[in-house]
């Protein structure tokens, strides 16, 4: 039997018993944080890939880099008017995500681009101990 169907059936039974609003108290525990981020480490570089679907206005996402911290702020908003949501699996809403990086990075050598729903941030290893937060601009990559 499909384990996901079993979980859905289990949740329906719990909704029936406790009421549909019961789960609202546990959303922050049950749902993963957004945006989802992968970080790839190289000798002197980090590549951070964040899943941010539907981003049209690049100014609606803020990226801050401070020493060994990457912070992303913004909104994932996927809306279609006139219909009723039948399935709701894509996580969305306001986010403020702070990630500790494996090593300090240079604030003057950061490049961010957005393509196909992915925000890609290139960071380079910092050699000094200087620390200050700075905002990073995002470029839209055209499809090839």
Automatic annotation (TrEMBL):
Residues 28-141 form the SHSP domain. SUPFAM superfamilies: HSP20-like chaperones. CDD domains: ACD_sHsps-like (cd06464). It holds the Pfam family HSP20. Belongs to the small heat shock protein (HSP20) family. This is Hsp20/alpha crystallin family protein. It comes from Lentibacillus juripiscarius.
């Amino acid at each position: 039997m499909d384990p996901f169907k079993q979980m859905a059936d289990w949740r329906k039974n719990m909704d029936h018993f406790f009421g549909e609003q019961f789960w609202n108290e546990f959303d922050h525990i049950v749902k993963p944080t957004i945006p989802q981020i992968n970080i790839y480490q190289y000798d002197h570089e980090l590549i951070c890939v964040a899943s941010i679907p539907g981003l049209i206005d690049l100014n609606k996402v803020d990226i801050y880099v401070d020493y060994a911290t990457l912070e992303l702020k913004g909104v994932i908003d996927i809306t279609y008017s006139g219909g009723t949501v039948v399935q709701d699996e894509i996580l969305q809403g306001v986010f403020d995500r702070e990630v500790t990086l494996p090593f300090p990075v240079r604030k003057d050598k950061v490049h961010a681009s957005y393509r196909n729903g992915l925000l890609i941030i290139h960071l380079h290893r910092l050699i000094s101990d200087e620390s200050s937060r700075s905002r990073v601009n995002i470029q839209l990559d055209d499809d090839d």
